[in-house]
Design brief:
The protein is mainly α. Helix content is 68%, strand content 0%. It is built from 5 helices and no strands. Helix 1 (13-34) runs antiparallel to helix 2 (45-58).
Length: 108
C-alpha cells in the first residue's frame, strides 16, 4: 500500500496554534451570523476585535483600521469566498461587512 504524500508544509507549533485560534474566531463569527446578528451590530465588537488582533499578529506591519477594512475588500476573491462559504452560507459577504463596520467605529 502506498503512503499518501502531502505537499503542504508542516506547520510549527506556533503556526498550528494560530490557525486553531483563527478557526475558533471564524466559527464564533459564523455562529453570530447564523443567529441573525447584523454585521454592523456593536454586539460583534469583541469578536471582530479578536479577529483584528489575530490579523495584527500575523502581519509584518501594523494593521491599521484602513488596512483592516482593505483586507475585508480582498475577501470577495473567489478563493476567500469559497473558503468562507464552507463555514456558513452568506458568511463571505457578512464577514467583510462586519470588519468594515468595526473599523469605521474604531477609526471615528
Amino acid at each position: 500500500m502506498r503512503k499518501a504524500v502531502s505537499h503542504a508544509p508542516k506547520l510549527s507549533y506556533e503556526q498550528s496554534n494560530a490557525m486553531s485560534e483563527l478557526r475558533d474566531i471564524e466559527q464564533s463569527l459564523a455562529s453570530a451570523m447564523e443567529k441573525g446578528i447584523e454585521p454592523e451590530a456593536r454586539e460583534l465588537d469583541m469578536l471582530v476585535e479578536r479577529h483584528h488582533r489575530w490579523v495584527s499578529r500575523m502581519w509584518p506591519q501594523p494593521c491599521t483600521m484602513d488596512a483592516y477594512a482593505g483586507l475585508a475588500d480582498t475577501y470577495d476573491h473567489p478563493d476567500f469566498a469559497r473558503r468562507y462559504e464552507t463555514l456558513a452560507p452568506g458568511f463571505a459577504r457578512w464577514l467583510p461587512t462586519a470588519m468594515k463596520a468595526w473599523a469605521r467605529r474604531k477609526a471615528a
